[in-house]
Design a protein that fits this description.
heterodimer, A: about 110 residues, mainly beta, six-stranded mixed β-sheet, four-stranded antiparallel β-sheet, about 50% strand, globular, B: about 120 residues
Chain lengths: ~110, ~120
């Protein structure tokens, strides 16, 4: 079955430190891949997406993600975390036909001052 | 783990009819539910946020009279697409959260096709 996993439930980093959030997918073919952020009490906001082409994708708020086919991964990174980045991050995938949009369980990010 | 059930998973109906989509939290009480819409090859768009017992908060550009959201209980929210037209065909997905610091759980989505 198609699935998206985020191995880390909760990550805590210090402000200014680098960040990497892991995401792995299990699909028959390479799906479209997304990262979303959700701040407390708000809906999802799209950070970035990968459909094809360059495997390093730039997003908003200084985030980037790298698609690695060999590892079935799409990890999210940021070189320097800001306190306002504290939120919940969701990796998601869907197949090329627009069906089966699947979300990972989410990773909660806490940022220490 | 927490489960969110969305029904129906796929619906096809004629233009002009109204369609109701249900989102249920099966094993927890959802104080907040979110409704999203996805267009082909695009990401999810938040349509509205609903808190139990309150009117839904709609995002800019979403017609509240077109997309009626009801969150009358802690386990059920409904989205009714009124007088549906082909341009309303899309994939609709809901998510539910118990309280702000709890994880969000997604339904499996509803594919709506208007003929």
């Amino acid at each position: 079955a198609q699935s998206v996993t985020q191995p880390d439930i909760h990550i805590t980093v210090s402000e200014g430190a680098s960040l990497e959030l892991r995401c792995n997918y299990s699909y028959g073919a390479t799906p479209y891949l997304f990262w979303y952020v959700q701040s407390p009490g708000q809906g999802l906001q799209l950070l970035l997406k990968y459909f094809s082409g360059d495997t390093l994708v730039q997003g908003i708020k200084g985030f980037e993600a790298e698609f690695k086919r060999s590892q079935s991964s799409f990890n999210l990174r940021k070189p320097s975390v800001h306190w306002s980045d504290a939120a919940e991050y969701f990796c998601a995938a869907k197949d090329n036909y627009g069906q089966n949009f699947v979300f990972g369980p989410g990773t909660r990010l806490s940022v220490l001052p | 783990g927490a489960v969110v059930s969305q029904h129906p998973s796929w619906v096809i109906c004629k233009s002009g009819t109204s369609v109701k989509i249900e989102c249920r939290s099966l094993d927890f009480q959802a104080t907040t539910m979110f409704w999203y819409r996805q267009f082909p090859k695009q990401s999810l768009m938040l349509m509205a946020t609903s808190n139990e017992g309150s009117k839904a908060t709609y995002e800019q550009g979403v017609e509240k009279d077109k997309f009626l959201i009801n969150h009358a209980s802690l386990t059920l929210s409904t989205l009714t697409v009124t007088s549906a037209h082909p341009e309303d065909s899309s994939f609709y997905i809901c998510s539910a959260r118990a309280v702000n610091d709890q994880p969000q759980h997604f339904g499996d989505g509803t594919r709506l096709s208007i003929l």
